[in-house]
Amino acid sequence: MHTFQPYPADMLELNPFTKIGKEWMLITAGNKEKANTMTASWGGLGIMWGKNVAYVFVRDSRYTKEFIDASDTFSLTFFGEQHPALKYLGTVSGRVEDKIAGARFNLNYSDDTPFIDEGNLVFICKKLSATRMTADQFIDPKLVDMFYKDGDMHTMYVGEITQILAR
């Protein structure tokens, strides 16, 4: 296992458009008995309700959603660049196989919150809200046609970033 150190939020320098949108991140949730992870390229960072937050979007069909819904926390793991295993993790379901092991990744934990040990930056997040998106919420109906023809909508999770870890 790698050694991670707490990293102060006020020293964090990253471009969320690159870090999330191009390099992707892994959303991981569960516990020490069972956990799952998924790739994500939709989300953001900011301030909400007076807290440092991350917000992520998870489709109804994703297995990791079950773990997020059942947990009080989740983690976001970032790499220095898009890791080759992220494509594998985005195409294999944890319902079918242990995709974390298949990617040759390992779980590490901050208290009981799992994260991917091979990353170099981790946000531990406490769930603050979960809002399921519905077609009637869209002002631009073309977005529904483009991204949700099959009805597989997203839930937006807002999590307070309670800890930042770096190695």
Give the helices and strands, then pairings:
Blueprint: E1 5-6, H1 16-19, E2 25-30, E3 35-40, E4 43-48, E5 51-59, H2 63-70, E6 73-78, H3 85-91, H4 99-102, E7 107-110, E8 113-116, E9 121-132, H5 141-147, E10 154-166
Antiparallel strand pairs: 1-10, 2-3, 2-6, 4-5, 5-10, 6-9, 7-8, 9-10
Any overview of this molecule?
The termini are close together. The chain has helices at about 15-20, 65-70, 85-90, 100, 140-145, and strands at about 5, 25-30, 35-40, 45-50, 50-60, 75-80, 105-110, 115, 120-130, 155-165. The strands form two sheets. Strands 1, 2, 3, 4, 5, 6, 9 and 10 form an eight-stranded antiparallel beta sheet that branches. It has a single domain (about 5-165), classed as Pnp Oxidase, Chain A. It has about 170 residues and is α+β, with helices and mostly antiparallel strands.
